[in-house]
Amino acid sequence: MTPELTVLALAALLQGLQFSLYSATSIAQVGPEKAAGPRDNKIELTGGAGRLQRALTNHFEGLILFTIAVVVISLGDKGTGFSATCAWTYLIARVLYVPAYYFGWVPWRSVIWFVGFLSTILMILSALI
């Protein structure tokens, strides 16, 4: 498996871990009865549960673009040391993003997000060159 595909698989596992953290904190906040209910009324999460929910949503958004980058690199047979480094940088940024969001590291949360985003864009650009 290519480094880029390995990182994509690890990023998917990170998303699963983030979902588990978010689920546990949201259930703790609203209670199991509300969490298991039909959710006819929107539940607004606050504090750590809300931050983990937003970090998870952000990962969904970033993972779409990163997946496109990996597909372009992989199917275009454009994998290089540079694209592998970009992929690993993306994953490290995503791992760091979770505590940065949860603990409110300002401005580092935004800097970490930008590093991951830039890594993804550079991967796509490297495939086109």
TrEMBL record:
Where does the protein end up? Membrane
Q: Please verify whether the record's keywords include DNA-binding.
A: no
What are the UniProt keywords, alphabetically?
A: Membrane, Transmembrane, Transmembrane helix
Which residue ranges traverse the bilayer?
52-75, 87-105, 111-128
One Pfam family hit: MAPEG
Q: What is its main location?
A: membrane
**At the top level of its lineage, which domain of life is listed?**
Bacteria
The cellular component terms of Gene Ontology attached to this UniProt record, alphabetical and capped at eight, are: membrane
What the entry lists under PANTHER family is as follows: BLR7753 PROTEIN, INNER MEMBRANE PROTEIN
The name this protein carries in UniProt is Putative MAPEG superfamily protein
> What is the source species?
Yoonia sediminilitoris
Q: What is the lineage of its organism?
A: Bacteria, Pseudomonadati, Pseudomonadota, Alphaproteobacteria, Rhodobacterales
